[in-house]
Amino acid sequence: MMSGATIEGPTALSSSFLGEIRQIVGAGNLKEGEAIAALDYGVAAGNLGATAVVLPASTEEIAAIVRCALAHRVPIITQGGRTGLVGGGLSSPGQLVLSTSRLNRIVQLSPIERVAVVEAGVTLQSLQAASAEHRLEPGIDLPSRGSATIGGMVSTNAGGISAFRYGVMRHRVLGMEAVLPDGSIYSDLTRVVKNAAGYDLKHLFIGAEGTLGIVTRIALKLEPLPAATATALFGLPSVAAALDVTNSGLAVHHGHLRAAEAIWRSYFQLTSSEHLWSAVDYDPNHPVNLLISLGGGDEEQLQMELAQIYEKVAEKYPEISAVVAASQAQEAQLWRLREDTDLIYRKHAGAPSYDISVPLSEIDSYLRRCLSELHRIDPQFDPYVFGHLADGNLHIVLNASAANMPPEKTAAVEAVLYGGIAAIGGSFSAEHGIGSKRVHSLRETADPTKFAFMKQIRAAIDAASILNPRKVTG
Amino acid sequence: MMSGATIEGPTALSSSFLGEIRQIVGAGNLKEGEAIAALDYGVAAGNLGATAVVLPASTEEIAAIVRCALAHRVPIITQGGRTGLVGGGLSSPGQLVLSTSRLNRIVQLSPIERVAVVEAGVTLQSLQAASAEHRLEPGIDLPSRGSATIGGMVSTNAGGISAFRYGVMRHRVLGMEAVLPDGSIYSDLTRVVKNAAGYDLKHLFIGAEGTLGIVTRIALKLEPLPAATATALFGLPSVAAALDVTNSGLAVHHGHLRAAEAIWRSYFQLTSSEHLWSAVDYDPNHPVNLLISLGGGDEEQLQMELAQIYEKVAEKYPEISAVVAASQAQEAQLWRLREDTDLIYRKHAGAPSYDISVPLSEIDSYLRRCLSELHRIDPQFDPYVFGHLADGNLHIVLNASAANMPPEKTAAVEAVLYGGIAAIGGSFSAEHGIGSKRVHSLRETADPTKFAFMKQIRAAIDAASILNPRKVTG
């Protein structure tokens, strides 16, 4: 499936090119051969398949690198934390990887404005830590926070657990600086939410996975960090019941809903049994489990809100289970039931995974249809399903290893999961992007006008195909 | 200043072109001559300067009109409510105005998803009314709600009073359908917040003022409509004090901040004296007045929150005044002090007005500098200043009629107000857009790379310059 990432053209870099790059960044910041092998390749070894890796320290150095690469027709693969799941960072011989790891400064953090200006290589976790000193948070969170960079999260339009409340990365970005494929510097580092001064072209770079420009600095909105949180796990009979709980969470009087994460039965049984988790009166066989977290000023009041939600929902659905975390340790245990997805891949090597956005009113019928049709493809299929219920983002992972999936079976599964998803107002790729892995699916499922328009825009911006060639639009 | 809107080329439309358009929409939906004069031109008579006005009823009709206009090289000026303040809708002989007024259906309104799908010509007010039936609201509000259309608000990336909380129009749009300059239909009507399926090119049409495509349908996020609201007016010594009140409003435990509108002294004195507004112990001479509104479940609790804010702020600034509205009628009276901007224009015909975004930490020094430098240009200048404090959007209107402003004086004023605004992270055009009136200022103040990139994108998308020529980028 990664064949879309294979690049034609020279599979080496000329010594004159490498010499010029060395001039720009200093010899120590251009890695080749053994020195590349010493770097952390992140999610996939193929991320570091390039001939050389350059580590610039400034926007000006990046602009100079791009101009040099353009002159020599060398493709640039920009990489942040190398945590992407769809092969957006894969590189091959003859290419240059540009790592943003040295662009790691928080340039400005204003508590009055609730805005941070950061370089692209700052990790989410370090921005979270710096924001927390002012009782603020970035308004976006995801499990790879320790390595995922803000630049990478902008380039992939990252989502995560708070998107229903604070939006995806696109909605967090106020201003941006980026290097265009001709090596010029696009400078629009506003720190205001209102800006109607012409086309807002920074949105071209958001979610473009490094194909239209290289994001170098970002001004981001921050949000108040609540003084207290409270978390409960509900065992529920249906998606409708889980949406009822979510709506009650959205309507609390004290504090606000921070997360509403759904865990369907088979995934819940996997994580709860592996972590030996159980609770008195909590039946592990509910069709859907919902983890909800509230944030606010006072933990006790938040726990009372959770108790009230339980009472209200139990009136309508008497068969539910619920447990409220009584400590931060218990809260962390409940979150592990949702977040420890590694358990799946340890059991099923390379299990095919999907990342679907479904409008809330369509989740139930979508899942019913898919599960029944998947069962028809292979009666052994009992996929792990979990995700961000409040925004309709479902993660669906097959209980099958990659080795057991011939291409035609994979194609049949995709036809089930992606078929009609646009017609019901959803998206076949919610938050992981397209990279190399999903190029063929984008081509097959996108509105033809939309897909042609993407290619037209890309050709207009990067006529020489210097930036991350073959990714996203193919 | 409107000279940028003058279009070269034929100043009439051929009968063959008009005949083809009549074929598409029916004779009754193509207006010429007298029939145009009977239409409401909105903010400026020049909006209806075109030879003909077409009123299509569907996306397909619009696509056919665009293909026909392209073949005949006739410019199309798309219009919604004709409420724009910067001449984005101005039209001239030889052009075709395309009105979205017949695209006025709310296609879908889902309380479960909290999403509406509307045609472009639906007014904000009718969407507000339809949403309110489900105790929802569009999350965006502005005084021209009765005539402003959703399509127009998308095309201008409208802001208003709720942007600090719910974002600007760009942040409200989930999905879109639009007609491209070649007459093809871009279809991306997703109803989900997470969509990483390739470039999100709908953002090109948002805020493009009808120059890159014609927005035909929009899927919009809705927000819960609070059961109760409470409003107070504070008289304060400084911007710092007003930001303190705003922050206290953001941190209330019951409900949430809905609006924080600042009214500087001279505008306050104008509206309060014209409306004969006064309140016991409310000193009308405070440097800044701040109108704040809370929304939540219980009016009494919200009013208690306002009283607590007063007590907290009065400890720090003992000289403040405050009045809490005791009824909806009093609430409306307070809002009139902020919103009745017509009073200015009745006193100073065509008073030059500016719409600036300033990062919160820069507002005080920005205003001090500007007021002092304006005073140096003309000692009679005592501008009316008011705006959306929580997002830093200042409206500045000169106490001078257009007749008293020779071009070099206007240029000097712009140099003061726009000078250095990008360097401090703001924007010279916050929410009104560029239209024809601000083209020269955009050209003069924009980052050259950014401006060149805008022109490059426009040329790539609309090579024949069919859509709203000369607007925005010139």
UniProtKB/TrEMBL annotation, chains A, B:
Q: Where are the transmembrane segments?
A: none
Q: Which SUPFAM superfamilies match?
A: FAD-binding/transporter-associated domain-like (SSF56176), FAD-linked oxidases, C-terminal domain (SSF55103)
Q: Which domain of life is it from?
A: Bacteria
The Swiss-Prot or TrEMBL record annotates one GO molecular function as: FAD binding
**InterPro entries noted in UniProt:** FAD-bd_oxidored_4_C (IPR004113), FAD-bd_PCMH (IPR016166), FAD-bd_PCMH-like_sf (IPR036318), FAD-bd_PCMH_sub1 (IPR016167), FAD-bd_PCMH_sub2 (IPR016169), FAD-linked_Oxase-like_C (IPR016164), FAD-oxidored/transferase_4 (IPR051264), Oxid_FAD_bind_N (IPR006094)
Q: Which residues form the FAD-binding PCMH-type domain?
A: 46-225
Which keywords label this protein?
FAD, Flavoprotein, Oxidoreductase
Q: Pfam families per the record? A: FAD-oxidase_C, FAD_binding_4
GO BP terms, alphabetized:
respiratory electron transport chain
Q: Tell me which family the UniProt entry assigns to this protein.
A: Belongs to the FAD-binding oxidoreductase/transferase type 4 family.
Q: What is the name of this protein?
A: FAD/FMN-containing dehydrogenase
